Amino acid sequence: MLCVRVWAKGHGAAAPCPARPEIAVDLDAGQYGKVAAALQQELAQNPNNAQATLWLARSFLDMGNYAQAVNFAERAVQLSPDCSESHFWLARSYGMKADMDRSFWLARKARLEYETAVNLDPNNLPARRDLMEFYLQAPWILGGSKDKAWAQVQEIATRNPTEGDLARAIYWRDLDRPELADKEYRKVLEAKPQQAGDYFEIADFYQANKKPVEVEAAVRAVSLIVPNDPRIDYYTAVANVMKRQDLSNAERDLKLYLAKTPQRDDFPPHAAAHDWLGRIYEMWGKKELAIEQYRSALRLSPDNQPAQNALKRLDAN
């Protein structure tokens, strides 16, 4: 399908939907239920509070309750039709539900909302980024177009050079041109941005392309910005497993990541952490422990191909 990944990008909200820093902090800490309960109390007293409605939609999106995310995001758009952020989060809600339901109808609605968000606020770079990815991933019948995607890349680059480099990297990555994506990511590293999410995005790319040294470089850079971010544990472990070294430390780091990190769309999934633990135990010859981890990965993500392949391999042996 064409689920556009939800990136952890900092961006300002256009009036009349100002930011709620105290809620953002709780969401970053994984306190989704706490935030949702508090916002529902606010709305019980003032059902027309557009700001609380939008943040409740975002809370449900983080919890993976896409039906409720859609409901409240649609309500937020009704209450603040000129707010770019409301349309942006409705687009993301539609996109996630479209992926879950395999619905072309919802996917088309997601595209329209992204386009509306960009039209309302041309400087909403996360909306442009998601729209660019939609154009790349969607079939033509849903409005997919490489030319439209490249146009969004250029618009992003004119507003923020580093974000432009990241957008070009995603463009080339999705067109299966990793060598061109690599050049763009290296430019981002040289620019030393202050957004931690940029470095984790780079680490994710190099993980997928089996380049542990580059993963470590991204982790070293981001550790200067957010030294206590739990994603550092994850990517450090991944690099060590790929290099087949310091496996005891890698096991520890992955267990720490699973223990202290909530499931979030902008963090590496827990299923992936279980998969990497399985690889460690397989290297150690601990077949039963490896099978247990691979099964845990599949329970969380039934489409996890590496875990499926590993279980077939272990059963065969």
Describe the structure.
The protein is an all-alpha fold and about 325 residues long. It has a domain at about 1-120: Tetratricopeptide repeat domain (Serine Threonine Protein Phosphatase 5, Tetratricopeptide repeat). It is built from 17 helices and no strands. The radius of gyration is 20 Å and the shape is globular. The two termini are about 35 Å apart. Mean pLDDT is about 90; it is low at about 1-15.
Can you give me a brief rundown of this structure?
The chain is mainly α and 317 residues long.
Shape: globular
- How would a textbook summarize the main sheet? none
- How many individual β-strands? 0
The number of helical segments is 17
Helix content estimate = over 70%
Strand content: under 5%
Q: Which short descriptors sum up this protein?
A:
single chain, about 325 residues, mainly alpha, Serine Threonine Protein Phosphatase 5, Tetratricopeptide repeat, about 0% strand, globular
Structural topology:
Elements (H helix, E strand, L loop, with lengths): L20 H8 L3 H14 L4 H13 L3 H14 L4 H18 L2 H17 L4 H13 L8 H14 L1 H14 L3 H14 L4 H13 L3 H12 L6 H14 L3 H14 L9 H14 L3 H14 L4 H12 L1
